[in-house]
Design brief:
Elements lengths: L3 E11 L4 E12 L4 E5 L6 H8 L7 E6 L2 E2 L7 E4 L11 H5 L1 H5 L5 H13 L15 H14 L4 E5 L7 H18 L2 E6 L2 H7 L2 E6 L4 E7 L2 H4 L3 H5 L4 H19 L1
Parallel strand pairs: 3-8, 3-9, 6-7, 7-8
Antiparallel strand pairs: 1-2, 1-4, 4-5, 9-10
Helix pairs in contact: 4-5, 5-6, 7-10
Length: 258
Amino acid sequence: MSFLTVQKIHHTYFTKDTSATALSDISLAVEEGEFVSILGPSGCGKTTLLSIISSLLPPTQGTVLLENKPISTAKNDIGYMLQQDYLLPWKTIEENILLGLKLSKQLNEKTKLAALSLLKQIGLTGVEKQLPKQLSGGMRQRVALVRTLATEPKLLMLDEPFSALDYQTKLKLEDLVSQTLDEFGKTAILVTHDIGEAIAMSDRVFLFSPRPGRLHKTFHIPEELRKVPPFEARNHELYSSIFQTIWKELESLDQRNE
């Protein structure tokens, strides 16, 4: 049995007068320590699936299992990192990174020291007593990553966490997040619109078709790219051909949807 198993997920949003099917018959598996991306055009249900996997949204049909147990029993095992950092502006950086530990009743001297140590590991020294407004966007996202990792989640959900950043900061954070998750042996699912980001960071890329979202194709990223940092992967000779392959598949999906 895989670390994470998504089985025959179907989801329909209902209103008083209408219904809209976001996902249809989604089945996939993710192994422990694997980094996968969900890629696809707008309207393919990427964020809906992420919400279902994280048990924030119950599916209309289907099941999600983490370590062979229903995902609803594993809420404390899941960390979420979003496009916005959602740091509380009136709390210091230290208070922000300890918030998850406090809410999950895991805060003690040992976990506090571990969180503060991680802050230093990712290059944020001496910011503990500062407020979020005193930090740049990239630094704030690093703080959000520390807050997410502090509770030691088994599964990390990344919902376009770099899309609001400038390109240079985005590339630096891709490397940092990839290295940090690798060091901690974390399993991660990234939702993104960025083909290059998906290729550079992932072991596998799941390409979804839209309306309703279905798993169209799975791309296995070659080991030569997987074993180097994302920035180096983008400059690898294999990168361009994989990019073109996925781009053509996306174009065919767009034409089919017109």
